[in-house]
Specification:
By secondary structure, the chain is mostly helical. The chain has 2 domains: about 150 residues, no CATH class; about 35 residues, no CATH class. The chain is about 75% helix and about 0% strand. It has 9 helices and no strands. α1 packs antiparallel against α4 and α2 runs parallel beside α4.
Length: about 200
């Protein structure tokens, strides 16, 4: 596929994601996965999961980090060189950031006037649970082979664990240990990430 066409598609996809996603980076993940894995087939499910993990570990908002890594990976999967990969990263990052910049720039002068109004509070009351749902959807997408085509989740023919993300029992044990350490011991995420990386290196 033509490199310019891929860059234009990248810009269009991530611009729309940035335009219509509320709730921050985690809420973006399900939309990004739908576009880069399902709709366009630019990368595999396991490759996207790796990108999410790296995006979580690197400084900055996870949604923008994910767009940066996705842009590079998409161009590399298309058989382009390193410089085109960098251009893909720049394109996706700019596209996902631009809508927020424009919207905030336009609304900053009007926010003080709408803050506290019944209409504004009513809209936010509906947006908050939608954001929680998008974050939950991202977790389900990374763990299960499902597509949102209207088929009930547990009767979907493709309903299964994403094996690349949980290849064996050791992966499940690491997941359980991280969950327990976070929930009961209140261990900070950075410590869990470092410990998970060390254990993964030793186990695999």
């Amino acid at each position: 596929m033509n490199e310019t066409l891929i860059l234009l598609q990248l810009f269009g996809v991530f611009f729309l994601i940035g335009m219509f996603t509320f709730g921050g980076g985690y809420a973006m993940l399900s939309l990004i996965q739908t576009q880069v894995v399902v709709a366009h087939g630019w990368m595999s499910e396991s490759a996207f999961t790796d990108i999410v993990a790296i995006s979580q570990m690197t400084p900055g908002p996870i949604g923008i980090n994910c767009a940066t890594f996705c842009g590079y990976t998409v161009m590399q999967e298309a058989g382009t060189g390193h410089l085109m990969g960098i251009l893909g990263s720049f394109t996706a990052t700019l596209a996902i950031s631009l809508p927020s910049f424009i919207i905030v720039l336009l609304l900053v002068k009007f926010y003080t006037h709408v803050k506290g109004s019944p209409l504004f509070e009513g809209v936010m009351a509906w947006i908050r649970p939608a954001v929680v749902g998008l974050i939950a959807a991202a977790a389900v997408i990374l763990a299960l082979n499902v597509s949102w085509d209207g088929t009930p989740l547990f009767s979907h023919p493709a309903f299964s664990i994403v094996r690349d993300n949980f290849p064996d029992l050791r992966s499940w044990l690491l997941l359980g240990a991280a969950l327990l350490a976070s929930f009961f011991l209140k261990i900070k995420p950075i410590a869990l990430i470092v410990a998970g990386g060390i254990l993964g290196f030793l186990l695999y």
